[in-house]
Request: fold
Amino acid sequence: MGRVVPNDVDAAITGRRAVRAFLQDPVPLALIQHILAVASRAPSGGNLQPWKVHVITGGPKARLERTLAAALATPGYRGKPAYPYYPDRWFEPYDSRRRDIARRLYAALGIGRRDVIAMRRAEARNLEFFGAPVGLFFCTDRRLEAGSWLDMGMFVGNVMTAARGHGLDTCPQASFISHHDIVARHLGLAEEEIMLCGMALGYRDPDRPENAFESPRAPPSDFVTVHAGYGDAE
Ligand SMILES: Cc1cc2nc3c(=O)[nH]c(=O)nc-3n(C[C@H](O)[C@H](O)[C@H](O)COP(=O)(O)O)c2cc1C
Reply:
């Protein structure tokens, strides 16, 4: 690494966090449009550009949040996930990692390990976009295949990096997929449109504990296998 100098792109990527508390400062629509245009330079197999984005703010956002809150408060309401984001049965190292990040978040919030009610309340903040002024929903055509979902991931990643470049923060949110029917109705999604995830967008509140914990990463030595002769010449 001695000869590698970190640059602005590195900083935009490494400066991103899943931010879970936002200031009320509005985000100009022109800036959102700019970020989405930049993100659309993402590559996609066959240049299919399979992304569709719904931007929600103000009254429509508040109405969706109220509907979701009412649904959550309805006895027997479970929601119906649009697709399984996680495996049914956990295994290592993934089980430990998800437990670890949840532990860090709840510890930052001062929520005890057995305080299920406080955990639920914190989780429900997802459906208010953690107080962000802007919500985004990322959709694609359900007739497309897994390759297009890979393209979607690149697009969504670009949105988060581009947002950082403008001092904005994000939290990608799979939580909404459990409530796909409600979201689809509110957004007026076409039958063939599937919403893959939501996202909170805004300016982070630097004083809130949920934004003040580290999310660890395994070092490259854990996930990289070098097969070529790199290092021979060094
Ligand atoms: C597609 C996707 C969906 C996610 N859904 C949620 C979510 O619903 N709620 C949440 O609080 N975090 C969500 N996250 C954020 C992850 O928990 C977070 O990225 C991870 O813990 C690493 O932390 P970091 O992003 O701050 O580095 C999601 C991340 C991704 C990529």
